[in-house]
């Protein structure tokens, strides 16, 4: 298997996560989050939120989102088709679409971490490794960022080593 074949594997993680969440609707509906945007975040479709996560009531989440333990989601955040791993902070008005955000990462205010969602493309999803910092107002599109990096400029179609 060459490098690009290995890179495509995380795209399957997002696809499989969506399938698991859809299955929970029938097998374990109590695991799926609910919310109408008043006292809790607005939830669209199948979404899992770990009980220890703190989600601002003005956030809009889903479909196909999984939020792990000790995650902090700020006001006005929009999450679509993503996996947010443990101890991540997504600050106010940030957007995450078709991405995997690694443990202990931080996404700054008004930032975007997104991909087009084409799982067959070389960089069809965005992946942030462990402890990646995306500073305020930075856009990361169709990119892979290895652990312990800080992004203070926008990137597209890049692998940040």
TrEMBL record:
The lineage of its organism: Eukaryota, Viridiplantae, Streptophyta, Embryophyta, Tracheophyta. GO terms for molecular function: nucleotidyltransferase activity. This is Mannose-1-phosphate guanyltransferase C-terminal domain-containing protein. PANTHER family: SUGAR-1-PHOSPHATE GUANYL TRANSFERASE (PTHR22572). Residues 43-160 form the Mannose-1-phosphate guanyltransferase C-terminal domain. It comes from Gossypium stocksii. Pfam families: GMPPB_C. Gene3D superfamilies: Hexapeptide repeat proteins (2.160.10.10).
